[in-house]
Amino acid sequence: MKPIRLTREQSRDQTRQRLFDAALTTFMNKGFGVTSVEDIAAAAGYSRGAFYSNFGSKSELLLELLRRDHDATMGRMRSIFEDGEATRQDMEARVLQYYSEIYRENKCFLLWAEAKLHASRDAAFREQFNAFMRELRQTTTDYISAFSERAGTPLPMPAEQLSLGLIALCDGVQFFYSSDPQAVPADFAEAVLAGFFRRVVFGAS
Length: 205
Description:
Distance between the termini: 65 Å
CATH architecture of the largest domain: Orthogonal Bundle
Mean pLDDT: 84
Number of domains: 2
Low-confidence stretches: none
Shape: elongated
CATH topology of the largest domain: Tetracycline Repressor, domain 2
Oligomer: single chain
Structural class: mainly alpha
Number of helices: 9
Helix content: over 70%
Largest sheet: none
């Protein structure tokens, strides 16, 4: 069978995707700081020049990886909260499932942790990275408020405070689970996250 000839645009997209995949794997295994452009290019099967034909820097590539994961997270949140026909019980079940499983389904968690460290040292990167974090906090705040209104359950504290607490709790559970899963097993981690929502957000006893 004659191989399919890719267009220039398709070839470029394929190259970028292979660089994305190689960067994600290398960042997760070695860490962002010690990973070089040459490491990423070699893992993808390309030259250093191919990397710079697609990205201006390692930081730029990291931001693109974060943007992709961020967009996927926003999509999942929208699918939970923007179903106008969902009952309160349906929404509660979806929210509990999402937040009680996110600690082990977020494959890019360590990438975000690396990005936070990089942002603390690089002012230019920090500005763009913080834009992701502000959007995540604001979107979470908006959905908490919307859920409270639809469910008729008053919030025990302002939605923006709950949003920050929820994000920090998820990050904390993921840190404990990823570094010491024997001390923080899956059922324990899920109980912590689900319990927060049941008691604090849903107002259940």
